[in-house]
Amino acid sequence: MENCVFHHHLRSMITLPQPPSTPLFPKVMRVRASAGRRHCEFSSQNAPLEPRSLVGKFLSGVLQNRRQLFHVVAKEELKMLSDDRDSALARMHLSQHSDEALLHRRIAQVKENESMIAIADVMYLLILYKFSEIRVNLVPKLSSCLYDGRLEILPSKDWDLESIHSLEVLDIIRKHVSTVTGLRSNPSVRESWETTPIRQVWLAQVYVASILYGYFLKSVSLRYNLERSLSLSDHDFHHGHKIGPSFHDMYHSGAKDVMFGNKSDIQSVWHGLIGQEEEIEDLKCYVTGFHPGSFERCAKLRSKEAVHLVESHSNALFGDGKSGLSQHDDIIVTSFSSLRRLVLEAVAFGSFLWETEDYIDSVYKLKDQEVE
After folding, report:
1. pLDDT tens for residues 143-158?
2. I need a labelling partner for 194 at 20 to 30 A (CA). Which of 34, 291, 347, 354 fits?
3. Considering only CA atoms, which of 42, 252, 62, 281 is closest in space to residue 152?
4. How far from chain centre, in Å, is Cα 44?
5. Which residues of 268-299 are buried (b: 16+ CB within 10 A; e: fewer)?
6. Distances (CA, A) of 195 to 161, 190, 199, 335
7. pLDDT one-digit tens code per residue, 14-71
8. Is 301 helix (H, G, I), strand (E, B) or coil?
9. How far apart are CA 270 and CA 174, in angstroms?
């Protein structure tokens, strides 16, 4: 009850003015993807996917107008969603031998479906918040950016999208970008702006695969640092040294720091630990040495809500947001620079998704994917 009262009070304090008085960024950032006589607008309010739930629409307004309260309000909304779902399930179990069993089972199912949509919205908005921290707007719906089959995305924002990764991870990502685009790691300006015909369905598949790759790299880099820290701890234990904070303390403080923008603190700790033991293999060798089963587990999205979000975002970006990805295998022309921009965005999206999923699961228990 106290939580409900606090939540109601918090909402009542947040009056969202119309039109928005405070944009997502300190200054409204608008850039254009050039497409001949037609332009698509990149802005903080023009992401491909729009919130569908009441919770999502409310939080979207908070993000635009009361940014400093966003994480506080988001956490309270997650708690309310969790309490509502738990209450519906409790009523279903209590009434399972009564005449109202069917009714409460149906109510619990409806509540579960509503929560799935709301949680996906919260995930998306948390990810948008993290993109805004590096001053990057997501590419809007591609259908609004195409003119006579030509797509060009400006500015590229490559440096900003790469800035969230450690040097070791970035080296792997650049090789991934080179592999999927055919562009070498350090291309000239002329090479970057050369155009190529591509199939739109292929581009959508590469984008989704790159989201999963970014998610995988985030997962495996944490596992890598865990194993290295354990190895260092064992090494220093035998030599009577103390190397600093344990990985358990480092990880849990880091998970909070990552969500609230203090990522550099935890990364500096990781780099400090890694630099102390040269005998341990580097991240690239660690990744390539993965057993296929381990690779699949790390690359697989952990929750149904995350799967739902990736599907919805991809459908909105490459399709019409309703009927799914375009079934027409149209050929479009674009530059290698634009291809690289899309791939880097997808990798960053996957990395942010891992962090966001981990954060939400600590407040609202997500639904695990079934083991196949």
Report:
1. 888 888 888 888 889 9
2. 347
3. 42
4. 16
5. ebbeebbeeeeeeeebeebbeebeeeeeeebb
6. 22, 10, 13, 4
7. 555 444 443 443 333 333 444 444 456 666 668 999 999 999 999 999 999 999 999 9
8. coil
9. 21
